[in-house]
Automatic annotation (TrEMBL):
InterPro entries: Glyas_Bleomycin-R_OHBP_Dase (IPR029068), VOC_core (IPR037523). Pfam families: Glyoxalase_4 (PF13669). Residues 9-150 form the VOC domain. Signal peptide: none annotated. This is Glyoxalase. It comes from Croceicoccus mobilis. It comes from the Bacteria.
Length: 178
């Protein structure tokens, strides 16, 4: 059990996220070579009240999400070059970009991050009641940790994606949502 008050104690890692230089090639790799899928595509995401390094930003990105057992795999595709967790010094391609922990209380996550001396890279809202923080606990590029407090419907969306992966036969590898 992780020591109380630490970043690890906020919750287990549930996602590995990648920022591929070639999004389509990455999808092909994960679905054909690795057998992970199906991926669900959410396009043109803009977080509410999004800030990057404390400044407002209009960053937009798309993600493709699939499950490999209990681990969520996310591929990120920037849709503009506005400041974000995937631009500038944090833009590492074709390797692990960030991990994600689901938290019950985003304010508590922020307190733990501040106590640890982490840099808050991005913050924003997901829908009406979800919140997210992308932080650099000190590793730098490739070591960002995402903390998400799921809003209404978030857990159900992830459960649907995970269920789709259980007996996936390789058909329809990319499914658009929303």
């Amino acid at each position: 059990m992780p020591r109380s008050g630490t970043i690890a104690a906020l919750g287990p890692v549930m996602q590995q996220a990648y920022l591929p230089a070639d999004f389509d090639a990455a999808l092909e790799y994960w679905t054909k070579d690795m057998g992970v899928g199906p991926f669900f595509l959410l396009e043109n995401i803009q977080l509410g009240d999004m800030t990057c390094m404390g400044e407002p930003t209009d960053a937009m990105f798309s993600v493709a999400i699939a499950y490999w057992g209990d681990m969520q795999i996310e591929l990120v595709r920037p849709e503009n070059d506005a400041p974000a967790h995937y631009t500038g010094r944090y833009a590492v391609h074709d390797r692990l970009h960030h991990i994600c922990q689901v938290v019950d209380d985003i304010a508590e996550a922020r307190r733990v991050l501040e106590a640890a001396g982490a840099t808050i890279v991005v913050e924003g809202k997901i829908g009406e009641d979800g919140r997210v923080i992308y932080a650099d606990p000190g590793f730098g590029a490739g070591g960002i940790t995402e903390f998400v407090q799921l809003g209404e419907g978030g857990a159900e969306l992830f459960a649907m994606m995970k269920d789709a992966a259980v007996d996936w036969d390789g058909s329809d590898p990319l499914r658009k949502l929303g």
